[in-house]
Structure formats: C-alpha cells, structure tokens
Design brief:
By secondary structure, this protein is an alpha+beta fold. The protein has a single domain (4-72), classed as Multidrug-efflux Transporter Regulator, Chain: A, Domain 2 (Orthogonal Bundle). The protein contains four helices and four strands, in the order E-H-E-H-H-E-E-H. It has helices at 9-14, 26-33, 37-46, 63-72; strands at residues 4-6, 21-24, 52-53, 59-62. Strand 3 and strand 4 form a beta hairpin. It is globular. The relative contact order is 0.18.
C-alpha cells in the first residue's frame, strides 16, 4: 500500500517531535476498507469518514480516521487481542 507522509495542520502546530500523519488517496482508502471508490466518496460527503482536502479536487484520508471508522463498523463481540 502506498502511504503518503504529510503533516496535518494540527501536527504542524503541535511542535517538534510529532509524527506526520499517514494520508492515503481515496482509492487506497477504499481498497483498505474493501469498498468501492464511489462508496468512499459517499462516506466522506455524508460526514461519516473524515478527510483532508489537499487541493480543490484532491482528498486524502488519515490512517487513524480509517481505523476509527473501521472500529465503529464492527458488529458483535470484540475479538481477543483487540
């Protein structure tokens, strides 16, 4: 998976010693979640999946936001070790 290292605005203000966010393209995020690119855009547009706008037409999704979204979608008991 091709991850892009870019500091977010919050991290840029946080000072030295912070790790840059792992930002993925929409296609990479969709593949990670096992959904279509269209569904990924629908989740972002509905506010269910957070994203960063990097240009007027380009979005990136933080890996931490993907993990949080994925954890929120889990149905059933927690797996051992989670």
């Amino acid at each position: 998976m091709n991850l892009i290292d870019r500091p977010t605005l919050a991290m840029a203000d946080a000072g030295a010693g912070t790790q840059p966010a792992k930002l993925l393209t929409v296609i990479e995020a969709a593949n990670y979640l096992g959904i279509s690119r269209t569904t990924c855009y629908q989740l972002m547009d509905s506010g269910r999946l957070a994203y960063h706008r990097v240009t007027a037409r380009s979005r990136r999704i933080d890996m931490a936001d993907l993990e949080a979204f994925k954890a929120g979608c889990r149905i059933g008991p927690e797996r051992p070790g989670d």
